[in-house]
TrEMBL record:
SMART domains: OMPdecase. It comes from the Bacteria. The gene is pyrF. It comes from Streptomyces griseoluteus. The active site is at K97 (proton donor). InterPro entries: Aldolase_TIM (IPR013785), OMPdecase_AS (IPR018089), OMPdecase_type-2 (IPR011995), OMPdeCOase_dom (IPR001754), RibuloseP-bd_barrel (IPR011060). Coiled coil: none annotated. Keywords: Decarboxylase, Lyase, Pyrimidine biosynthesis. The keyword Lyase applies. The keyword 4Fe-4S does not apply. The lineage of its organism: Bacteria, Bacillati, Actinomycetota, Actinomycetes, Kitasatosporales. PANTHER family: OROTIDINE 5'-PHOSPHATE DECARBOXYLASE (PTHR43375:SF1). Pfam families: OMPdecase. This is Orotidine 5'-phosphate decarboxylase. Pathway: Pyrimidine metabolism; UMP biosynthesis via de novo pathway; UMP from orotate: step 2/2.
Length: 279
């Protein structure tokens, strides 16, 4: 029986620190690395990042969009990235942001969370904006396969609040409702639940939100989007110990040199550790 994702993630965070490095092969980054904007460039880029970081960070988050844009050959590269990352000891959070009616959601869940799937990942980002209940097949399969979900709650982009801050008839915001659903999923889980929220490090004051969901908080926005490791304690308060900060371009812009990628990763990891320890 596979250990639950939350258990595996807690251990990885304790051993390696909480940093998640994102693999986002933007066309502009491929060019900066001297690579062509084609499948060969994609493969060289992403496997270089895996070699540089997957043996030292807790989590790697491939951004599926940048692989899908090359069609089946790009997805084949993504399969190798997942396999090599897991072999090097990091957990893979597949950032594919899937969300659909329940019957179709079952298909997406099979694609990423079934142990025999070519893209089997430790966790998947999902969108609850067809209604949280539409995610039920993914929750069920995640429980069976020892994987996890990260549900978009308070995203890092400036457009998010128009949906996520909207107030429901019961007076709760949409985002607070998602957090409450996650707290219910994770009730009783130890040391950490497997059902996390995506909460951007850029979103500012979260004091009106209950982030105590007993699950991980994936926090994109550090680096290129303007948030810093020092911002984390103020944004996440007492939940900061469960935060998995993601940095993609902030690390990737230092490539293709492996030593430079590792130095940038170590610098972010150190700043995050110091900020969390001092909070
Ligand atoms: O709210 C969200 C949810 C996901 N993301 C993703 O994280 C990375 C951020 O990349 P940076 O280069 O560090 O800005 C990217 O894959 C986004 O799709 C997010 O930014 N915000």
């Amino acid at each position: 029986m596979t250990e639950p994702f939350g258990t595996r993630l807690r251990r990885a965070m304790d051993e390696r620190g909480p940093l998640c490095v994102g693999i986002d092969p933007h066309a502009s980054l491929l060019a900066d690395w001297g690579l062509n904007d084609d499948v060969t460039g994609l493969e060289r880029f992403s496997r270089t990042v895996v070699e540089a970081v997957a043996d030292r960070v807790a989590v790697v988050k491939p951004q599926s969009a940048f692989f899908e844009r090359f069609g089946s050959r790009g997805v084949a590269v993504l399969e190798r990235v997942v396999e090599e990352t897991r072999a090097a000891g990091a957990l893979v959070v597949m950032d594919a942001k899937r969300g659909d009616i329940g019957s179709t959601m079952a298909g997406y869940a099979e694609a990423f969370l079934h142990k025999d799937a070519p893209l089997f990942s430790d966790a998947l980002t999902v969108s609850p904006y067809l209604g949280y209940g539409s995610l039920a097949p993914a929750v069920e399969l995640a429980r069976e396969s020892g994987t996890g979900l990260f549900v978009l709650a308070l995203t890092s982009n400036p457009e998010g609040p128009e949906v996520q801050h909207a107030v429901r008839a019961d007076g709760r915001s949409v985002a607070a409702t998602m957090l409450a659903h996650l707290a219910a999923e994770n009730a009783g889980a130890e040391p950490l639940g497997s059902f996390g929220a995506v909460v951007g490090a850029t979103v500012g004051d979260l004091s009106s939100y209950d982030l105590a969901i007993n699950g991980p908080l994936l926090a994109p926005g550090v680096g290129a989007q303007g948030a810093t490791p020092e911002d984390l304690p103020a944004v996440f308060g007492s939940a900061v110990g469960n935060v998995v900060p993601n940095v993609s371009r902030g690390v990737l812009r230092h490539g293709p040199d492996i030593a430079a990628l590792r130095a940038a990763t170590a610098a972010f990891a150190g700043e995050i550790r110091a900020a969390v320890a001092g909070s």
